Fold this sequence. Notes:
The chain is α/β, with parallel strands linked by helices. Helices cover 39% and strands 14% of the residues. Strands 1-7-6-5-4-2-3 form a seven-stranded mixed beta sheet, with helices on both faces. Strands 8-9-12-11-10 form a five-stranded mixed beta sheet. β2, α5 (107-119) and β3 form a beta-alpha-beta unit.
Amino acid sequence: MRIDTKCIQSGYDPKNGEPRVLPIVQSTTYSYDTSEEMGKLFDLEAEGFFYTRLANPTLDAVEKKIADLEGGVGAMLTSSGQAASLISVTNIVKAGQHVVCSSAIYGGTFNLFNKTLRDLGIDFTFLKSNATKEEITAAFKENTRACFVESVTNPSLDVSDIQLYAEIAHSFGVPLIVDNTFPTPINFRPFEWGADIVTHSTSKYLDGHAVSLGGIIVDSGNFDWNNGKYPMLTEPDETYHGVVYTDHFGKAAYIAKARVHLMRDFGAQAAPMNAFLLNLGIETLALRMERHCSNAQKVAEFLEASEKIEWVNYPGLKSNKYYDLAKRMMPNGTCGVISFGVKGGKETAEKLMGELKLARIVTHVADARTCVLHPASTTHRQLTEQQLIDCGVAPNMIRLSVGIENSDDIIEDIKQALESC
């Protein structure tokens, strides 16, 4: 099936007389006839459901759908995108080890890595978004165990050269983790460019309607964990009577451990209702991404032509430094998010946002409705001035998430707001 068909058909195959639409299994637990049957589930000797903290039929169907969209061997839904980022790293990195990471990532992810995981003993080296091959290579250490980047960064809209990062990471025997939230698998599939693990904040385009929080981790199944650096996957886990994940689960070792170890202990599971709503959103994902991208292109061109705008960053513009890279990796478009700077600095940017009528000021991004945000004073406000620069967040930056309304209405709203400034 082609990917837009998979958005609708993949993950759930109703049998004769079963619900045509994926049902919500709103149950924490599941009934079995014997203790022996349940014991096999606890020992990972059989597949099935016994407690929703680990797995649930509704979640399972959506996980299979997203894994299929990304081309992975398995996936695990989480309660939020933050939880997905947390587990994606801590599943294979422990205290005393190191991660190479782009600095131009979502502010919440930066704080998670730079504060909380540092406090837990995991070291990070943050690279500027336009780091050269030599600079990326120099960042790796003997104890590096993962490399983490965003395919299209939030909010600076930098496009990461996934193929380059993958080649360098693999030369050090380390997997590449890619947050693919903004382009979604409709516009970009990181595994096809060498990435090993993909994460999403499903709260964004995948859900598409700003109604359900969630995250997901997808395992490509392509990375060889048997290189001596990942004993948590290749040596016995005594909490499961000595199971060795790479032996027991094969190509799905990484995602299996994430579920039966970290989800078991962290409990950051998604709710069945949220998974149900997410699935409804994914059914229209291909249609929505096409409209988001076409609308954003028109808005970006309008902004670039305005004398009141200092700069516009959108990979679809020919003037953009990432235009060629984006066209090569994402020929159908990147996303519907634009970042731009208003002449007059922070005060003018905030005034402009206040004059908008159709677009609303919200923390969220990447749903059907057009919305704006001032990152420096909201999502990235905990960062120092230097960290803001490293993340590509200028004081006059506005993050504009272009919705799927009529593009003329969106442009007219911005035009009247600019005229008021």
